[in-house]
Amino acid sequence: MKVLVLNSGSSSQKSCLYEIGDALPDDPPGCAWEGKIEWTDHQAEFSIKNSRGVSRKDQTSVGSRGEAIERLLHSLWSGKTQAISGPADIDVVGHRVVHGGPQHFEPALVTAEVKSAIEGVSVFAPLHNRAELEGMEMVAKLLGPMSQIAVFDTGFHRTMPLSAVTYPGPYEWFEQGIRRYGFHGINHQYCAQRAAQLLGKNLNSLKLVTCHLGNGCSLAAIREGRSVDTTMGFTPLEGLMMGTRSGSVDPGILTYLMREKHFSGQQLDEVLNQKSGLLGVSGISSDMRQILAASKNVDEPEKMARAKLALDIYIHRLRSGIGAMIAVLGGIDALVFTAGVGENSPEVRAAVCDNFAFLGVKLDQQKNAPSPLKNASPLKNDNDKDISASDAAVRVLVIRAEEDWMIARQCWNLVRQQSSG
């Protein structure tokens, strides 16, 4: 089965083609073809490669996102990066949908009703949901009446108890759909399953805290394979400090800014989502690599102080959030780091884990190093490893984010269920 995955974001578009046989492999396979578009100032930067090792990169002006997506998909069946003979070779297309609202949690065939529901909650994640709908329209235009499946980022968190879901405001909020949905669920679910596989344990026996640390950041408390709490809520703004997002702040700050500084809703949205977090505090960047470099640059003491403050806040809030997740679980068997910062920043991992030594968290400093070492004992996938000390009571894992593969798996399962039903 050939499964094409479209992962549409606010500033990027990722696509992968997976070829899956009669059974799902134990380890994530490589893509037969993968492409990415990054949009900057009306320019589209394309990065495309296939399994034969053929790749190309270029930048061009495009009139619309749809035009760029069309060009990207054409490279799948034409040109030097071609991986299939034509669109008819594709069996199903899967889409990551950030917000499914109160109606949609399970993977679903894309119908007019499903698209209407996604549009109906796009106000909660406007940059993402509308981009995802545009991707669905482009697939319909290019591939015709192809089966398309929506996989919802909020879906994994559907198992959270009402006490974790309901905000302590008027109960009418909950009745109106104002509740904690949680996000990054596709990757949190994948990491939980992968952790159990790598540890050789039954997922139902584990208490896990998964740390998705990228430009967006969230934690999940996972017991018996089910999400019981997470840090993001009604929107992807709640919770941890992020690249440009503030995370949780005192709501009184917002009413103060509206009342005394005459901020509009749009201004608040812009400040909280685009001008806060690492960027807002440091004044330097939203990129953790640049923050870490600036925090050590003694030649620019003012920038160093701001960068160090941003880093200290980030670590403080991350430790606090992990502690809360452990309390909800009533213990922890493994702590998982994933996504850009989680996978690539040994400094962040070490700073976080240091404060949980009292629980039996202990890193092997060589295994936590940025480059693989001969004695690092990597697990099955070279990208995934156990960085704990041999005598640690709590395992610490680094697991590569595999949202696209998780979406492909969900599509494979749904298609198989329908064909056998």
What would you say this structure looks like, in words?
- By secondary structure, the chain is of the alpha/beta class.
- The chain folds into 2 domains: 2-152, ATPase, nucleotide binding domain (Nucleotidyltransferase, domain 5); 201-403, Nucleotidyltransferase, domain 5 (2-Layer Sandwich), CATH 3.30.420.40.
- Helix content is 38%, strand content 19%.
- The chain has an 8-stranded mixed sheet with strand order 5-4-3-2-1-6-8-7, sandwiched between helices. The protein has a 6-stranded mixed sheet with strand order 11-10-9-12-14-13, sandwiched between helices.
- A hairpin with a 3-residue loop joins strand 9 (207-213) and strand 10 (217-223).
- The relative contact order is 0.11.
| Total helical elements | 14
What percentage of residues falls in helices of 4 or more residues?
25-40%
The largest sheet has its strands arranged as 5-4-3-2-1-6-8-7
Total individual domains: 2
From N to C, what is the helix and strand string? EEEEEHEEHHEHHHEEEHHHHHEHHEEH
In whole angstroms, how far apart are the ends?
A: 18 Å
CATH evolutionary superfamily of the largest domain? ATPase, nucleotide binding domain
Name the structural class.
Answer: alpha/beta
How can the largest sheet be summarized?
Answer: 8 strands, mixed
CATH C-level of the largest domain = Alpha Beta
Q: Please identify, by name, the CATH architecture of the largest domain.
A: 2-Layer Sandwich
- β-strand percent reads 15-25%
Weakly predicted, low-confidence segments: 372-381
Named CATH topology of the largest domain: Nucleotidyltransferase, domain 5
What is the β-strand count?
14
What Rg, in angstroms, do the CA atoms define? 22 Å
Shape: globular
Mean pLDDT across every amino acid position? 91
